[in-house]
Design brief:
- Strand 5 and strand 6 (152-154) form a beta hairpin.
- The protein is globular.
- It is an alpha/beta fold.
- Residues 1-6, 152-163 and 176-185 have low confidence and may be disordered.
- The chain has 6 helices and 6 strands; from the N terminus they run H-E-H-E-H-E-H-E-H-E-E-H.
- Helix content is 39%, strand content 19%.
């Protein structure tokens, strides 16, 4: 019997892509958590509000079908700072459908956004706020970056509860990357 046959058929993962968002490189590991995966992609010409309404309706159908969502990825497109309230609404709906017993994870992701872009700070702030909403749920933020600036940070790594200033996250990103580079090169910290 293969691994997929042994997984619960009522469990699923969900990937959400805003129009213009890059396809995430981490999706295979995310997808392997359950037998079923669904993808929702914002259509060209579909407004952010229409997309958010469609996502919330999809999440309601998942609830009605009694499916267990083990994880979700929400991949953001650039030039979407005005979408923050709608992203939050969609992510809160996702968090509400997560299994409480399966250590679910929400991955908030984006492409290679320049660290000085204020939109990146807005997304980091959204991650910080979502990280505080549901206990025992991991909320991660990932940027698909070039090797010299990459980093993945989970809400558990936050230094204290509450809001995290974006500059602190950038500092942590640089420190983590430097540590990883040394470890990969065999240099002791």
């Amino acid at each position: 019997m293969n691994e997929l046959q042994t997984k619960d058929p009522e469990k699923m993962t969900l990937l959400i892509l805003e129009h213009g968002a890059p396809w995430p490189t981490w999706i295979n590991g995310h997808r392997s958590r359950a037998n079923h995966a669904a993808v929702e992609v914002q259509a060209q010409g579909e407004s952010a509000e229409e997309f958010a309404q469609r996502l919330v309706a999809r999440i309601e159908r998942i609830k009605q079908q009694n499916l267990t969502v083990l994880g979700a990825g929400y991949v953001c497109a650039p030039s979407g700072a005005e979408r923050t309230a709608l992203r939050r609404k969609s992510c809160e709906a996702l968090l509400s459908v997560f299994s409480k017993n399966e250590q679910p994870e929400l991955i908030l992701a984006a492409g290679d956004w320049d660290a000085s872009d204020p939109e990146r700070d807005v997304l980091i702030q959204l991650w910080s706020e979502l990280s505080q909403l549901v206990p025992n749920t991991s909320v991660s933020i990932r940027f698909e970056e070039t090797e010299d600036k990459s980093g993945v940070f989970r809400s558990a790594m936050m230094p204290h509860p509450g809001r995290v200033h974006p500059a602190r996250v950038r500092e942590a990103t640089h420190a983590q990357h430097t540590s990883n580079r040394k470890r990969w090169a065999g240099v002791k910290n």
